[in-house]
């Protein structure tokens, strides 16, 4: 995979990870309730769930492109519609929205279980990854390139939420995020709409 294409993959994976939602609320809850380590454990287990869905998507996209190009195109457009819906939802979100989370007593085991369940319990991730990864997967892509895509998605997701967990141990970070939540929603909303348009236009070159 060319470096420029991989950098595009990193950018869109980062945008997906940074979008406010239940995953962010999960890491906030476990970090506030149990401290840094439960938050990090929740982040890493969530990344494993994301990697599982990314793997399923990468393995299935190549077959769809070859055998059912029309179905692949329909699913891709469905993914683009979902990205657009997420973008509109983010733009319409309130000031705090998903950035609000209350701390509850938690353990590392609970954090690991819930981190995995939040990822695997969200089948919309498949649709998200279809739209995302359709820009990068080709029928003749090597196994190494597919592994690179999956690892990139996992590392970006886990790295972002670990950063969130570590940052939240500093008491001033969460209030700072909450005050600026509406700007975070607006920025991610615009970026998601732009990505939806990119998916409709066609694969990245």
TrEMBL record:
This is LysE family translocator. The chain crosses the membrane at residues 41-66, 117-137, 143-163, 183-201. GO terms for molecular function: amino acid transmembrane transporter activity. Its main location: membrane. PANTHER family: AMINO ACID EFFLUX PERMEASE RHTB FAMILY, ARGININE EXPORTER PROTEIN ARGO. InterPro entries: LeuE-type. The keyword Ribosomal protein does not apply. It comes from Billgrantia tianxiuensis. It is a multi-pass membrane protein. Keywords: Cell membrane, Membrane, Transmembrane, Transmembrane helix. It is found in: Cell membrane. It comes from the Bacteria. One of its GO terms (cellular component) is plasma membrane.
């Amino acid at each position: 995979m060319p470096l420029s294409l991989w950098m595009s993959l990193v950018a869109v994976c980062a945008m997906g990870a940074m979008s406010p939602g239940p995953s962010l609320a999960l890491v906030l809850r476990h970090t506030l309730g149990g401290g840094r380590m439960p938050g990090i454990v929740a982040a890493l287990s969530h990344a494993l769930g994301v990697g599982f869905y990314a793997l399923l998507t990468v393995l299935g996209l190549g077959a769809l492109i070859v055998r059912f190009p029309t179905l692949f195109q329909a699913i891709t457009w469905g993914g683009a519609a979902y990205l657009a819906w997420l973008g509109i939802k983010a733009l319409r979100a309130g000031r705090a929205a998903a950035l609000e989370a209350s701390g509850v007593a938690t353990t590392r085991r609970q954090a690991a279980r819930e981190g995995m369940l939040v990822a695997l319990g969200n089948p919309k991730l498949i649709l998200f990854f279809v739209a995302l990864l359709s820009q990068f997967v080709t029928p003749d892509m090597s196994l190494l390139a597919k592994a690179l895509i999956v690892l990139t998605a996992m590392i970006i997701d886990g790295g972002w939420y670990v950063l969130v967990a570590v940052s939240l141990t500093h008491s001033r970070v969460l209030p700072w995020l909450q005050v600026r939540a509406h700007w975070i929603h607006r920025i991610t909303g615009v970026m998601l709409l732009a990505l939806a348009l990119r998916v409709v236009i066609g694969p990245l070159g």
